User: Fold this.
Amino acid sequence: MAKNTSRISRFRIGTHVVIQIVAMAIVVLGVNYLGFHYYVRGDFSRSQKFSLSDQTKRVMKQLEKPATIIVYFSPTSLTPDSALYPDVNALLRELQFSAKKNLTVEFVNPTRNFARARDLQNQYKFGANENVVIVDYDGRSKFLPVSQMAVWQENVLMGDTPQVKEFKGEQVLTTAFLELIKPETRKIYFLQGHGEPTFAPTPPLSILRDYIIRQGLTAEPLNLAALDAVPEDAGALVIISPQSDPAQREMEIIKAFWEKNGAVYVALEPGMDTPLIQAFLVENGIRPLDNRVLRTVSLGFATGILRDVTTRFIPGSQITKRIEDFNGLFTGATQSLQLENAVASVKQIVLRPLAEAAEGYWGETKYAKTDGNTGMEFDAGTDAGPPLVIAASAERGGVKDDRVELGGSKLVVVGNSTFLTDPALSETSLDFFLSAMNWMLDRGSVAGVAPKSVKQFQLNLTEEQLGRIMIYTMVVLPGIAAILGVFVWLRRRA
Assistant:
């Protein structure tokens, strides 16, 4: 009887062990499955180096067919480009993750895979000593030298290796995909001839110009003096800070362009005498007000005037829906806008406010007296009170649904122009402008926060700070560990 009881006990124990092992295996497999399919990825680097921009993610989702990136790159080459290999490798891993199964990356080391290297050189016609990235999509391809993916240190002494100041690989690859996904020519014209800032690779619009090109767009200056119409290939007409009105004939050309489902972007220069432009805007439901947006700040001993306007982007439009959580800063003179809904309704125009001044600002009509830092007060009878709209859009025709992009006349008006110039152009202002351009060109599906350069960060410490770090790492921390060790040793001996 005792033997039977012993056998039953051993059987029960063995059964319990097997059940525990199976249960543990199920838990481990379940945890691994959940961890593989459901997880959160985070980038805790200072510059968010390993995070893709919102626009890049949206572009990757636009890949309807398989795309291929071929990296012809030797990490052991003696060229300065080899310093970019880790950044390029990390960027491509993020792109693959974002594109899911629609992106394949092939690494070709020309020092090891000679046959494949020769095939690529013959196919794409480049030299054996070049480091390149080739993007291929739907029978079209882009050839990208790796050296163009960085901004290099200038004034390098003879014999020194150039250092990387900024890595802009995401910008370059996003631009390439934009051009391959939407190969049609999209040209943006910047009106010239009326005191507008020169649109060229030089200031004051050089940074804006560079980023437009990185969007896969073509941008050129346009003078209407000798033309009878806006060019047929125009996707949008941009008017920035006109110092005087276009001639009546030129204004009729601009109106005709708008009437034929054209897109017009106007950044006003407050105080300029431009009645024809203002009349065009009023006809379409947006009235620029003769005021200056400002607020007062207490300086302790006096009251100062703040003319740089903190901006809040308003939800509800395709232009702002991906930057509505951001605040912008419009430097320089800013005037507010009034939306004429009655006028817009008659002409079947849809008006939307895009940006408004933050709390505390008002539209001062006696702005001519605010040159000094003397206190001003809000006058409810003459001044414009909050909310102050400083950017708005007007749309006529097309499909009245933000989920669909289809034609129509489009107009964006901003009561400030300084925010687009090189010294004042912030990342948020840039995103606002580029989102407006993508909306105007019916490319709202790829609008969003544009990719920026990743700048190298160098920590410069004084001798005193280095000394403190040495004391903490070589004396304080080892000393604490030694004290704890002695304490534990004494406790064990007690």
